[in-house]
Specification:
The complex is a heterodimer. By secondary structure, chain A is of the alpha/beta class. Chain A is 38% helix and 24% strand. Chain A has a six-stranded mixed beta sheet with strand order 6-7-8-3-9-10, sandwiched between helices. In chain A, strands 2-1-4-5 form a four-stranded antiparallel beta sheet, covered by helices on one side. Chain A starts with a strand and ends with a helix. Chain B has two domains: 51 residues, no CATH class; 203 residues, MetI-like fold (Orthogonal Bundle), CATH 1.10.3720.10. Helices cover 87% and strands 0% of the residues of chain B. By secondary structure, chain B is mostly helical. Classes of the chains: A alpha/beta, B mainly alpha. At the A-B interface, helix 2, strand 6, helix 4 and helix 6 of A face helix 7 and helix 8 of B. The structure holds adenosine-5'-diphosphate and magnesium ion (MG). Magnesium ion binds next to helix 1 of chain A. Adenosine-5'-diphosphate (ADP) binds next to strand 2 and helix 1 of chain A.
Chain lengths: 253, 262
């Protein structure tokens, strides 16, 4: 049984069909990249998986749970096991690094513990370890609005990691970063996959990055899955099918 | 469209707007018999008259204790109205904001409610409430409170959407509950901006309280009204001066607070 299984997923925003009958599955431990031009449905796909938006039809099975059927407490628990990293980091910038990291534990806590911010010693310990792993041990009590983009994204990764997820969804994690911070972030994601065994599912719009880091690539065009295979299977014809003829030429060069 | 054509059109639009405004002004002046030239030549006369009649005299100064006590009441009322309105506007804003709404219909209702409160001018509130509660301090307080509540509800909704939308989404994705999200993302993210709005309303309310006081027969506005009607302009001027100083002081304090919290 695969860790994530998406079947016949379709999403309509009113008149606009953002995803059309998408099916694929992801095994535990894989590094999967999703590529496609903007507007091809990458963000919509990720958000349908963790239910930030509701799919129109289809099924999403994650870790033996039927995600689209869950509600209330069960949905919270399923989300807790599923990390997410955002293009714009989505931190609470007025809070310190460690407070933001600990937010990753909220899915496991009771309302009252969460409201009061009561975290166990163990959780705080884990937060420090995770920050250390991501090279942020100097920044623990710094307010997040004082960090650089790359550092903010690492806080985002730490917040996802402390959830103890089996899979981390990443929506264009490097699109707001310069090349060197981008490389640092991608290297960390790779390290998380190889050393911690966490599955990585990442939307990218840089084909070269996707090819370098992933074991499998999903290519989308106008909401349809048009490629599902290894990076070296992506030839000119495939690239053109994903990005259109003219863009394809530019990307191959 | 060529750039030339584009810029020519831009200029044309600008010119048309200007001409339109001048025409409307002339037309409005005509029906209200407002004479622009007359208005401008009146300025020196007004200034001279004011200086002769509005310099506080000894009697005005001797009334200072009473004026200050009324002023203190007014300040107290404005601060209370603003703070209570802010506390109640927060849940209203949670319901109405796009980020934290719990149901679409409830959000629509909250927005509509806030909008009604906000769009009734404070003087209208005062007059309506006089019918219900007569002329009393409570009426003045309620008028300030209702108008502030409407304004702050709307301002808080926008603040929440601007300051917390992205982090709220992240917390929801991590499995946080509604109340956890509000206390861990919305409050820390939006509170400083919301406090700033509240300070702004305290300043505004001290100014409005004067008008409300005239209408409801309370506080500093009532005192001002009495002096004006009994032609004691110098004492009225004393009140005006005190008000100006108070507003300046409050503004300075709240700017200092803003620097700390923002
Ligand atoms: N909230 C929304 N309302 C309406 N249409 C949307 C919304 N979000 C995305 N879309 C549309 O859905 C399609 C897919 O968008 P998205 O998933 O953001 O693509 P990508 O992440 O690949 O750029 C686009 O046509 C976009 O305009
Ligand atoms: Mg996107």
């Amino acid at each position: 049984m695969s860790l994530l299984e998406v079947r016949n997923l379709t999403k309509d925003y009113g008149e606009v069909r953002a995803l059309t009958d998408v099916s694929f599955s992801v095994d535990a431990g894989e590094f999967v990249s999703v590529i496609g031009p903007s507007g091809s449905g990458k963000t919509t796909l990720i958000r349908c998986i963790n239910r930030l938006i509701d799919a129109t039809s289809g099924t999403v099975n994650y870790d033996d749970e039927d995600m689209l059927k869950l509600g209330g407490r069960d949905l919270r628990h399923a989300r807790a096991k599923l990390g997410m990293i955002f293009q714009h980091y989505n931190l609470v910038y007025r809070l310190s690094v460690i407070e933001n990291v600990l937010h990753g534990r909220l899915g496991y806590k009771s309302d009252i513990q969460g409201i009061l911010g009561l975290y166990s010693e163990e959780e705080k310990e884990k937060a420090l370890e995770t920050l250390d792993l991501l090279g942020l041990s100097e920044m623990v009590y710094r307010r997040c609005d004082q960090l650089s983009g790359g550092q903010k994204q690492r806080v985002g990764i730490a917040r996802a990691l402390i959830q103890d997820p089996k899979l981390i969804l990443c929506d264009e994690p490097i699109s707001s970063l310069d090349p060197s911070s981008s490389k640092i972030i991608m290297d960390y994601l790779k390290k998380i996959q190889t050393e911690l065994g966490i599955t990585i599912f990442v939307n990218l719009h840089q084909v070269d990055v996707a090819k370098r880091y992933s074991e499998r690539i999903l290519g989308f065009n106008s909401g349809r899955l048009v490629y599902d295979g290894p990076p070296d299977g992506l030839d000119r014809v495939q690239i053109e099918e994903i990005y259109g003829t003219e863009a394809g030429e530019l990307i191959i060069e | 469209m060529t750039p030339d054509k584009y810029f020519r059109r831009q200029k044309f639009v600008l010119t048309a707007v200007l001409v339109g405004m001048v025409l409307i002004t002339l037309f409005a002046g005509d029906i209200t018999r407002f004479d622009t030239a007359d208005a401008f030549t009146a300025v020196p006369r007004v200034v001279r008259w004011s200086f002769r009649n509005f310099i506080p005299d000894e009697q005005a100064v001797s009334r200072l204790p009473r004026i200050l006590s009324r002023l203190l009441d007014t300040i107290y009322m404005s601060v209370m109205a603003s703070m209570i309105a802010a506390i109640l506007a927060f849940p209203m804003a949670l319901l109405g904001s796009r980020t934290t709404r719990v149901a679409g219909w409830l959000a629509g209702a909250a927005r509509g409610f806030a909008s009604v409160f906000r769009n009734i001018p404070i003087a209208a509130w005062a007059l309506i409430l006089i019918l219900a509660f007569g002329t009393s301090d409570f009426t003045g307080f309620l008028a300030l409170f209702f108008a502030t509540f409407g304004f702050l509800s709307r301002a808080f909704m926008e603040t929440i959407d601007e300051a917390s939308a992205s982090s709220v989404e992240a917390l929801r994705a991590a499995g946080a509950s509604y109340t956890q999200t509000v206390s861990q993302a919305v409050i820390p993210g939006s509170m400083p901006q919301m406090l700033s709005w509240m300070l702004y309303m305290i300043e505004t309310n001290i100014r409005s309280a004067t008008l409300v006081g005239i209408l409801t027969g309370t506080g500093i506005g009532f005192q001002f009204d009495i002096y004006m009607k009994s032609l004691q302009y110098r004492s009225a001027a004393m009140i005006a001066i005190c008000l100006i100083v108070t507003v300046l002081v409050i503004e300075t304090i709240s700017n200092a607070l803003r620097r700390v919290i923002l």
